[in-house]
Write a structure and sequence with these properties.
Helix 1 runs antiparallel to helix 2 and helix 2 packs antiparallel against helix 3. This protein has a five-stranded mixed beta barrel with strand order 1-2-3-5-4. About 45% of the residues lie in helices and about 20% in strands. Strand 4 and strand 5 form a beta hairpin. The mean pLDDT is about 90. The chain is rod-shaped, with a radius of gyration of 28 Å. By secondary structure, the protein is α+β, with helices and mostly antiparallel strands. The protein folds into two domains: about 70 residues, no CATH class; about 60 residues, OB fold (Dihydrolipoamide Acetyltransferase, E2P) (Beta Barrel). This is NfeD-like C-terminal domain-containing protein. It holds the Pfam family NfeD. Keywords: Membrane, Transmembrane, Transmembrane helix.
Length: about 140
């Protein structure tokens, strides 16, 4: 009877993993299925053995298998749109000051102003985009 409960618990945990996607529940499901196998093989009443197998298998899976699965199936965060411009080099086209400016970033012209308001950049000067505020690139001296 306990083997059936552990089997159902393992299957439910594996199904719940589809909603979380973090691979914790899948590791617990592996422990529950291993404990169900031990319960079926050892016979009823091996509760302590079941608990030890569950804990041991779940722990081993969390330490060894979960990091491999995370590396394999986790998609890295890719910045898009204006967020992708942060850190990119730019060239000043028209003087950049606290109130106005124009830079060229990857072939596109953007309005710009200095990240630190006291700075000014002249035409041709290399700068780096620190942040994008609306349609304006906030820049600082290039490295």
């Amino acid at each position: 009877m306990i083997a059936i409960v552990l089997l159902v618990a393992g299957l439910l945990l594996a199904a719940a993993e589809l909603a979380s996607g973090d691979f914790w529940l899948l590791m617990l499901a592996g422990g529950a299925l291993a404990a169900a196998g031990v319960e079926a093989a050892a016979g009823p009443g091996a509760y302590i053995l079941d608990a030890v197998v569950f804990a041991l298998v779940s722990t081993i899976l969390v330490w060894l298998l979960r990091p491999l699965l995370k590396r394999r199936f986790t998609v890295p965060l890719v910045k898009t749109n204006a967020g992708a411009l942060e850190g990119r080099p730019a060239v000043v086209l028209a003087e950049v000051g606290p109130d106005s400016g124009l830079v060229k970033i990857g072939g596109q012209e953007w309005t710009a102003r200095p990240y630190f308001p006291a700075e000014r950049f002249g035409p041709g000067e290399p700068v780096v985009v620190v942040e994008v505020d609306g349609a304006t690139a906030l820049v600082q001296r290039g490295v």
